[in-house]
Every structure is written in C-alpha cells, then in structure tokens.
Task: structure prediction
Amino acid sequence: MEEIVTGLSYKFARSTRHLIAATIVLAIICTPNRPFATQAIQLSNEGTRVQYHASPKVRVVPNIVYARYGHLALRLDLYLPIGSKTAVPGVIVIRGGGWMVNDRKESAHVAAALAERGVGAASIEYRTAAQAAFPGAVQDVKAAIRWMRANAIRHGISANAIGTLGGSSGAYMALLAGIADDRELEGAGGNNRVSSRVQGIVAMATPTDLSRLDTGGQRVVTQFLHTSLARNPTLWMRASPVNHVRAGGPPILLIHGAADEAVLPEQSSRFAELYRKAGGEVELAMLPKAPHPFWNYMPWFEDTMNRAAAFFHHIAKPVR
Result:
C-alpha cells in the first residue's frame, strides 16, 4: 500500500508528476501478474523524498540472517547508535509495499534515523504475498522480534524494551504481530523458545480493518490473503488488527496523514477508540495535510522520527 513512485523527484511540475503517476498506474494495471495498486499512488503536492545517508552516529551490521524456512533465509540490517552507555530500546522496522515488496534497503533511512536518536533498529525483509499467504509475513515479523530478543545483549539492546514500527502494510504487520494472541502467527522461523511479545508499537497509516478498505485496497488484500472477502469473510476478520483488540496489549502510537487517500484516517481513529475502550494505552497523532507515505518525505519525516524515538524511549524507562 505504500506509494509505488518512490524514486520520482519532486522537482517536476505538478502536472508532470500527475502525468507520470497516471502512466505508471496504467502500466501496472495492464501488466500481467503484477499487484493492483492504483490506490497506492498518492503524490504529495509538496515535500521531497528522504534518502538514506551513512551517519557517523550509527553503526550498521548488515546482512544478518534472522529466520530460515527450508532453503529460504530472511535477512535484516541492524542500525545501532554509537557510544550508548546503557542498553537501548530495539525496534523491528517493516517497510510497506502492499505485501509485495521485501527490499529492506527501502527502510534504511527510517532505521538509521531511529539509531541516530538512540534506538537500535533492524530493517527486515519478509516473505511477500507471492511467496507465502497470510500469515507468512506476520510470522516473519514475529521471528525478527524473537531474533532481536535472543541477540539483544550482544548488540547492546534491552531485551525488555523491544517494539515494532512500520508504514502502510508494514504498519499492519507491526500492529498485528504486536497485539494478536494467536499461536499460528508465531511460525517456525527460528528462536522459537524466545518470547515474541513487544513493549510498544508505532504504526503509520495502518490498515486496521481490511473489510473497510476501498475497492482498490481490497484487491491488494485479496492477493495478500489469497482469497477475497466474499469467499472467506472469516479469514478477513481474523487478519484484521481491529478484531484482535484486547486488554493487556502494549502501548501504541498511531500516526496518520489527515490527507491520506489510500488508507483513510478513520482506520487509525476507529482502532484507537476501540483500543482505549479495552483499557489499552494508545496515542493518535493526525498530521495535517500529510499524504499516505508521509514518513518517507520532508517536511514530515523529522517530526515522525522524533515522535517514534521518543515513544520507544518512553516505553523503555520502566524496565531499565
């Protein structure tokens, strides 16, 4: 669900950007065996794409295998703050892309920004919808959480302050993996005797009720679940985070763009209301004029990373 046009420069004139976006949408629709993702195209009228840059404040440990499924090895890149004298909170960073893109490098700028702010961040790849139907990708997030907890001491991370963060479909995985009490979501990717519980979740522009997405969004979800809402409404309900709200869940920070046309803001506001009623701790930050993929663009990027890092430091305080 994250935007498809990730590489376009915002130096183009507005009319030119719209023409390019329309051309790409047409190409996607007309190309066989490609995900239908027209609702994922949402260019903001202002702002520039944030690019990853190496930071002298961050140490990167790349290409770590965190889960195995037969011959398939899933990898992560770990971004660690340099010079921390105490164990830092750890976060699993999950990129979006309609469950069809697993390039962990696309979240490097997010993971590095969190590390600059004193948070250990692992940008992960996961099995796409083409590789594994639901709950495969969510099981991968669980495996990544278990890996981080099992290796926390080695990397200076607090095993008792681990969270998840994602945008769009990545936020969906961060949220569901963090709140659901469902043994089938654990999977068997590795470190299976280690807890996959999280102490906090940051979900940006997250779909929380899959059945309430628009027609384009539901087409994408159908590819993820390998079945339509009409054919298997029970699975769609089970796969929706809104149906896993319960007492005793971890603190959650929801961030949503008020101008989001791909995943409407009500997906976050409704979830927040239900979570509060269940006794959960949840904060909802609605960003004025921000589009769907705001975390990838200035002027919203810095504020979003500051909010996220502060949240993870906050959840780490009681356990230090």
Q: What stands out?
A: Residues 54-319 form a domain with the Rossmann fold fold (CATH 3.40.50.1820). The mean pLDDT is 87. The helical segments are 14-30, 108-116, 136-150, 169-179, 215-225, 233-239, 266-277, 301-316.
